Amino acid sequence: MDCLFCKIIKREIPADIVFEDEHVLAFNDINPQAPTHILIIPKQHIATLNDIEEADLALVGRLQFTAARLAQERGFADDGYRVVMNCNDQGGQTVYHIHMHLMGGRRFTWPAG
Fold first, then answer.
1. Any idea which residues are catalytic in this one (predicted)?
2. How far is residue 81 from each of residues 13, 16, 38, 43, 88, measured CA to CA in Å?
3. Cis omega before residue 111 (within 30°)?
């Protein structure tokens, strides 16, 4: 498999890792869109949101839990933050391994910007 995030998990490609447990890895985005921009990924390869199965629900919930914990640890949870998951090409997904963007440290507007 030629998945960028799987290679990061295997330490074949370096990343600035900020959190890791048995199921999840989180690292700073190399092209940040906010003062804090962390990618949170499952260690299990799941290509898109469309590929999540019922057996994966706890894992996907763990991504959300990790985002909230990292926002709290970095001091912007109470001010607010953005969590985004993209799906497929038209949804803006560029790496086909589900991942969550945690962005904080600035005011966000809607639509996304």
1. 99 (tele-amp-histidine intermediate)
2. 28, 20, 11, 24, 23
3. yes
The torsion defined by the Cα of 84, 72, 9 and 2, in degrees rounded to 10, comes to: 10
- 29 vs 6: CA distance, rounded Å: 15
| Contact of 95 with 86, CB cutoff 8 Å | no
Query: Which residues belong to the active site?
Result: 99
Q: Which helix (H) or strand (E) holds 68?
A: helix 57-73
pLDDT tens for 46-62 read 999 999 999 999 999 99
DSSP string, 77-101: TTT-EEEE---TGGGT--SSS--EE
Its pTM stands at: 0.93
Cα 75 to the center of its chain, rounded Å: 18
State how far the Cα of 2 lies from the Cα of 11, in Å rounded to an integer: 14
List domains and CATH numbers for the chain. Answer: 4-104 (3.30.428.10)
- Sign of the Cα pseudo-torsion (61, 9, 50, 101, in order): positive
